[in-house]
Amino acid sequence: MVPHFIDYRSCCLNLELSSYCNLKCGFCSQFNNTLSDKGFLSFELFRKIIDEISGKGVTLKSLNPFFRGESLLHPDFVRMMDYIYDLSKKIPVCEYLVLHTNALLLDLEKPEAILKLCDQNRLIHPGNLFLSIDAASAITYSKVRGGDFNQLLLNISEFLEMRKKRKQWGPNVIFQFIVMEENYREAAEFYELCRNLCRLHSHKELAAVGSRGNQPFEVKGDIVYYRMKETDACGQRKMEELYLKTLDKLGIETLVILNDHSSSARPGNRSAR
């Protein structure tokens, strides 16, 4: 049973739907075999957890159905999203949904399930869809992630078109770029790639954000998100220097950089020091 003393209104619930992934990125635990006992969260357990929370008649702050794996691999992903959608007709299960995905499986019925749940007429806030991309070309994408870059762009374009046709705000789409040795030269090109995708297929404006400490921040729209690569203590200083150098060369006037000590910043603040 869910303990009665939990303050659900401030609770962000993480549910790892899948510890499997369709990619093996070199900087991820999926690649270095540190993950063991992989599997899928059963629909029965998922439903039990959601029912116990929903039965309290309260709304979670956020529901995050992901962790180390690719959630869209789950054979019951659409069924799970639809279950939350149906329960939220009277009282929303959560204020908003947060989902990270590499987007290579963002096809068939999955986009519709995500869009339906993130509609402003269902949840309180639009929700955030993080797309882990990290490249602006097929060659670099192959090196960093090893997937089909053309399929990725097609899936993203179709998702943005679907959202536009539905005339809905949510979810916010976050185009994520983790700065590393293999891709830093494409950082500016990545912004242009995302901006062109949005010009062609989206009805929302696009902003750019950098986060030196990779700390959480409030997402208010579609953004290009530059993250610093996390590594061991020996390599962290080098990664930080590369990250700051890369952001300084971007030349994006509206870029907002968040530092380690602040959760907010204003457009035009180019300093993370």
Describe what you observe in this structure.
By secondary structure, this protein is α/β, with parallel strands linked by helices. It is built from 7 helices and 8 strands; from the N terminus they run E-H-E-H-E-H-E-H-H-E-H-E-E-H-E. The protein has an 8-stranded parallel β-sheet with strand order 1-2-3-4-5-7-6-8.
What spatial form do the alpha-carbon principal axes imply? globular
Helix segment tally: 7
Query: What structural class do the secondary elements suggest?
Result: alpha/beta
| Unreliable stretches | 260-273
- Rg, Å, rounded: 19 Å
The averaged pLDDT comes out at 86
Overall helicity = 25-40%
How much of the polypeptide forms β-strand, as a percent range? 15-25%
Whole-Å distance between the termini? 46 Å
Query: What assembly state would you assign to the polypeptide chains in this entry?
Result: single chain
What can be said about the biggest beta sheet? 8 strands, parallel
Count of distinct strands: 8
Strand order of the largest sheet: 1-2-3-4-5-7-6-8
Order of helices and strands: EHEHEHEHHEHEEHE
Characteristic key phrases:
alpha/beta, 8 strands, single chain, globular, 7 helices, eight-stranded parallel sheet, 273 residues
Compact description:
The chain is of the alpha/beta class. The protein is 32% helix and 16% strand. It is built from 7 helices and 8 strands.
List the helices and strands and how they pair.
Layout: E1 12-14, H1 43-54, E2 60-64, H2 77-87, E3 94-101, H3 110-117, E4 128-132, H4 138-144, H5 149-166, E5 172-179, H6 187-201, E6 206-211, E7 222-228, H7 233-248, E8 256-258
Parallel strand pairs: 1-2, 2-3, 3-4, 4-5, 5-7, 6-7, 6-8
Helix pairs in contact: 1-2, 2-3, 5-6
